[in-house]
Design goal:
This protein has 2 helices and 4 strands. It is α+β, with helices and mostly antiparallel strands and 101 residues long. It has one domain: 2-Layer Sandwich (Alpha-Beta Plaits), CATH 3.30.70. The N and C termini lie close together (6 Å).
């Protein structure tokens, strides 16, 4: 398993998206980007993805941290590029780091 830690910003009209909707947005974007995601086990399986802290509705941010667990090795720049292509205007993937577990 490979943990990707990345930094993103949330600006413009995206400041009005709730935390739960932001989580769904990332789930869909990660799937559309074609990443092999690690899925949790149990009654309600979902991708192993987390955002470090939840922002209040209407707040912009330049530095938000998130992590996702992948089942494939990928270069940080390729991860950033592929995910950024799936993001709407207002969400920018700034950097990514890979950690091998």
């Amino acid at each position: 398993m490979y943990t990707v830690s990345f930094v993103f910003s949330k600006k413009g009209y995206m400041k009005y998206i709730s935390h739960l909707d932001l989580m769904r947005l990332f789930y869909r974007a990660l799937r559309r980007a074609g990443f092999l995601l690690k899925i949790t086990e149990g009654f309600n399986p979902h991708p192993k993805f987390s955002i470090k802290r939840a922002l209040k509705l209407g707040v912009e941010s330049e530095h938000e941290e998130a992590q996702v667990v992948l089942r494939e090795v990928i270069e940080p720049e390729e991860f950033r590029f592929r995910l950024q292509r799936q993001m709407p205007e207002g969400i920018e993937i700034k950097s990514a780091k890979i950690f091998i577990k």
